[in-house]
Amino acid sequence: MPLRVTFLGTAGAIPTTERNPSSVFVARDGEGLLFDAGEGTQRQMMRFGTGFSVSHLFVTHLHGDHVLGIPGLLQTMAFNDREEPLAIHTPHGTRGQLKSLVNALGNRPSFPVRISEVGGGDVAYRADEYEVRAFDTDHDTRSVGYALVEDDRKGRFDRERAEELGVPVGPKFSRLHEGESVELEDGTVVDPEQVVGEPRPGRSIVYTGDTRPAEATIEVADDPDLLIHDATFADDRADRATDTAHSTARQAAEIANRAGADRLALMHLSSRYAGNTDDHEREAREVFEGTAFVPHDGEKLELPYLDD
Length: 308
Hints:
alpha/beta, 7-stranded mixed β-sheet, 16 strands, globular
């Protein structure tokens, strides 16, 4: 089942000629999820071919570089004759501000927009095979991060072992794989644990938004496939990172190690590094045991099942 991440905007507070403000699009089995929407997000979606079929928008906090793209995006959706509702999730205490932003153009959107508040520990969205969890972050305003965590998958079905036990090919295979014991013609009962392996973990993506290093990032998902972490500054501005409630690339790498992440995407880069992100990648790679990289706007990443 495809799980694709498109980095729509990777800049910090000030956009550059190459980087748009924060926004990440996640496509899973035909469903589109958007995390933050800095100004110009709708143009980035057109430019990089994600389309506008977004069912849920997850806002980490209400600083302009994360939300100023919302009015334009909603207008573009309306111009495209959207009728499906859009759910927007925002930190506790910010619904009123976000509602004002949604209505900033002086008229309500032509399709339903439902705004809900979330806090650390809440399940912002529960789907059939995954959920999006909110977790506490450490920024200088009300803020949360989000983790998309898939359910465990069924264990592998051992067809050869089933046949050895006398299970006939057909419906009983499916019943066993679904966790149901079956009785054979001679009265023998075969239990699922005899022919089905241990559950296999699903995939997970953790997106912090803007934050200092936070323990909740480590705890929200087990060994995430991808951690998208604030890395506004390199080591040369570590004091500035602390003062402005951001992280350095090295700090993001330390969190990624402790979280057991497989890959680390360094996001929200300050415009002072517009021409060169080598230090970010070098400093993160000195610490992180997995793959650390600075994504470009428009970069796409497919996340496979690691055990397939």
